[in-house]
Amino acid sequence: MKKLLKLAFTDFKLIFRDPSLRSFLVLPVILFVLIIWGVPPLIEKYDFLFPYLSLFLVVGVIENTQMFCFINTMVLIDEKESDVAKVYGVVPLSKMEYVFSRFLLPYLFTVVLNLILLFVQTICDISTASALLISFLAALVVPVYALAINSLVQNRMQGMVYVKAFNMLVLIPLAAFFVPEKFVHWFGVFPTHWVFQAIDRATQNLSIGVFAAIGFVFFLALLWLVSRIFVRKHFV
Amino acid sequence: MIQVENLVFQYPGNDEPTLKGLDFSIAKGDIFGFLGPSGAGKSTAQKVLYKILEGYKGQVNIDGKNLSEWNNSYFERIGVGFELPNHYLKLTGKENLELFAAFYPSGEKQNNAQLFEMVDLQDAMDKPVETYSKGMKMRLNFIRAIQHDPDILFFDEPTTGLDPVNARKIKQHILDLKNRGKTIFVTTHSMETADGICDRVSFIVDGKLVLTDTPRNLKSIYGKEAVTVELKNGQSEEFPLKDLGVNPKFLDFIKQDEVKRIHTLEATLEEVFIRVTGKSLGDE
Q1: 284 residues of chain B, pLDDT tens digit each
Q2: Most B CBs within 10 Å, among A90, A156, A231, A232, to test the B interface
Q3: Given an 8 Å threshold on Cβ–Cβ distance, is A92 in contact with B75?
Q4: CATH code of the domain in which B189 resides
């Protein structure tokens, strides 16, 4: 456990010493300000936005995950580019322990950020159980996103291109809110669809159990798959 | 300690294997060197041995146990000095060392300050690695590889990027490690490094081992047991080493004028390499 924590805390040291990564830490603050003080007056002023209340929350939750998605992606790419990844290949740390330690704290931080967001927002009423489920589910975007990109790219430039592409992929299921009911779950091929739908149902005080369950299974299966690919490529 | 039989490795996507049936063994406490040009397969062979590359064919035994049967405890027993510097640039040298030290059982680690002092980095240990020169980073590579006191060490081009003084110091440290019973596998294209530290060397060309022997034997077999004597008046002649002190021709010759220089005709390791393989060590 000591070595896992050492590695996890080293990541924070690296983030704080890199100005380009450090600046991303203010992203949740901006998001909180917008959701808490920006959205309510907007809805009050423009009535036509009222049916889309849940969308504000969906965007808030998913953007909350983007901070560590980007930071972790870049930390791992730097590690690959500078060949430090090779050193992890020859230390007595299993590859899965490595993955676990790199994402434990970012995952938990994202869960906490989402919980805070869901509790402090005044747009909709969401039960504590739903808020917890949504927070734990949505935070799974972080490891899947960072590991998937790092399984595909070799350097920072390629990484930036894939970050753009993945940002779009993550948001594509927003379109499900604008299509006829029978087409909504066509977007289920994107894992974030199940997070978005769960949030939408939570804002209507409906049960989110099934959606969250599908989401967890989908994300965990993806996580297992991308971890395997990542482990095969990262340390060579 | 290390036995390798018929080792074949092919990178995915390549048309032919990079390693084409290598056979070699390294005894405990020996320094064994792979000498060959870039792209010959030196580093690939090491990567198989330190378990970064999987999917090889052939038999690799470490301490009598098949390499694939070793679990993570194998990494406690080995140390790897990579060919190029690879550190977190935003962390200090000390932080880099401490981070990787955290993965090893505490009892085996060496004192950090002593390690930095050993490679003359004591004044730089608290500075970010991004301020280090390439040579300093390579020295940090070296102490990271040995910090947990491993039994088996892999060094890939250990003197690359070092100035002659530091290169000599690193070679001496490698010899000291050998004297402490460590088993060391070095890859290099530097004839001088191989000659200076290796008990045995193998010439590797295009993924095949061409010859294995001690540097002394190789130089002796492929060289000439003779000397050339050059006089100040410009005359030069070759004499066999055998009975040189009582060779009347030699004695008469050196009386003719002041001796300018005497050369032995022992081959250098590089000359042996070129003669045996038909390639130069600088060949890509």
Answers
A1: 899 999 999 998 898 999 999 999 999 999 999 988 888 898 899 999 999 888 899 999 999 899 999 988 899 999 999 999 999 999 999 999 999 998 888 766 678 889 999 999 999 999 999 999 999 999 999 999 999 999 999 999 898 888 889 999 999 999 999 999 999 999 988 888 888 899 999 988 889 998 898 988 888 777 788 899 999 988 999 998 889 999 999 999 999 989 999 988 877 778 888 887 777 665 54
A2: A90
A3: yes
A4: 3.40.50.300
Question: Element (H or E) spanning B7, and its range?
Answer: strand B2-9
B78 contacts chain A (CB < 8 A): yes
Q: Where are the alpha helices (DSSP H) in B104-185?
A: 112-118, 134-146, 164-179
Contact B132, B123 (CB under 8 A): no
Provide the number of structural domains found in chain A: 1
Candidates B239, B268, B216, B200; CA nearest to B29 is B200
Indicate whether B236 belongs to any domain. Answer: yes
In a domain, B277, yes or no: no
- Alpha helix (H) residue ranges in chain A: 2-17, 19-22, 27-33, 39-45, 53-81, 84-88, 95-120, 128-138, 141-152, 156-171, 191-203, 209-234
Kindly state whether residues B79 and B168 are assigned to the same domain.
yes
B201 and B234 part of one domain: no
Say if residue B35 is in the same domain as residue B98. Answer: yes
User: Buried b vs exposed e over A45-69: b needs ≥16 C-beta within 10 Å?
Assistant: eeeeeeeebbbbbbbbbbbbbbbbb
Q: What is the DSSP letter of B131?
A: G
Q: Domain count of chain B?
A: 2
Closest Cα in chain A to B72: A92
**Domain range for residue A183?**
1-234
Closest to A145 (Cα-Cα) out of A166, A126, A175: A166
* Best B52, B83, B99 residue to mutate vs chain A (most A CBs within 10 Å): B99
Supply the DSSP string of A6-29, one letter for each residue.
Answer: HHHHHHHHHHHH-HHHHGGGGHHH
**Structural domain range at position B242:** 224-265
B36 and B103 belong to one structural domain: yes
B75 to chain A, minimum CA–CA distance in Å?
5
- Taking alpha carbons only, the member of B19, B41, B42, B37 closest to residue B284 is B37
Looking at the structure, tell me whether residues B31 and B165 fall in a common domain.
yes
Q: Residue A14's closest CA among B134, B92, B85, B103?
A: B92
Residue the block writes with tokens 């290598």: B22
DSSP of B230-243, one letter per residue?
Answer: EETTS-EEEEESTT
Asked if residue B149 and residue B260 are part of one domain, the reply reads no
The reply to whether the predicted model has a pTM over 0.95 is no
Amino acid residing at A111: V
Q: What angle do CA A178, A182, A184 make, to 5 degrees?
A: 45
